[in-house]
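Readers of this paper often ask what the protein records in our data store actually look like. Such a record has a labelled line for the sequence and another for the backbone structure tokens. The tokens are whole numbers drawn from a learned vocabulary of local backbone shapes. We quote a single record here, exactly as it is kept in our systems:
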Amino acid sequence: MSAPSPPAISAAWTEPERIRVLVLILTLNESENLPTLLAGIEAALPAADILVIDDDSPDGTGERAAQVAEQNPRLSVQIRRDQRGLGSALRQGIAYAIEHDYDFLLNLDADLSHDPADLPRLLAAAQAAATPPIDVVIGSRYVAEGGIEGWPLRRRLMSRLVNRFATTILRLPIRDCSGSLRCYRIARLRQVELEGLRSGGYAMIEELLLRLRAEGATMVEIPITFVDRRQGESKLTSREAVRSAWQLVRMAWR
């Protein structure tokens, strides 16, 4: 499958005052990584707002974020006491972005696997002159110049196979459908019925693309380097991986 070519973009993105940008971070036990991540986002996009949605982390990630928010008016924090899961947290973040009339929503992992310095590149691609406008920009590991650092060969091959399987059965015009480093145009997200999104875990990352595609969204990928986490533990357990794979098959069947 050949992925669409990204538009020509500049290395930096200038932030017009009329453009409102929200960076979404979904957290669970990322207290060690959070300060570095927040500092990186603020350095990359000083005019953007940040929303942290924390699943009541036992290590105090949510409380630590709330303390930072007391000194930073651009940072908002929501701690979910009775909910769990990436899927519902992502829906909650999208709903917040729509309700508060942002123009673009950026999402990245909280474990420093994604470089915040890449965020302006995603925004620049979303703002590039194109007809029709670009609705989703994906930071891709599997296009030219993209890559992964810190994974053993077996894990890299497995990830490629899973992505190839998912993009094929879901008929998505991209190569990397399981990474969460993305920029979404809010005007297009408004067309997605959030309550109709059914995935509760990592499969939400693919389901959102599937629903956006059904609404006519245009998608491009730009290369990024994914770096394996250096602190903390991955939330993608074997059980969650199997659950997500089954949800992908059900989505394809529907």
Summary: The two ends are 22 Å apart (CA to CA). Residues 50 and 75 are 5 Å apart (CA to CA). The helical segments are 34-44, 61-69, 86-99, 119-127, 153-169, 186-189, 204-214, 238-253. Residues 8-13 have pLDDT under 50 and may be disordered.
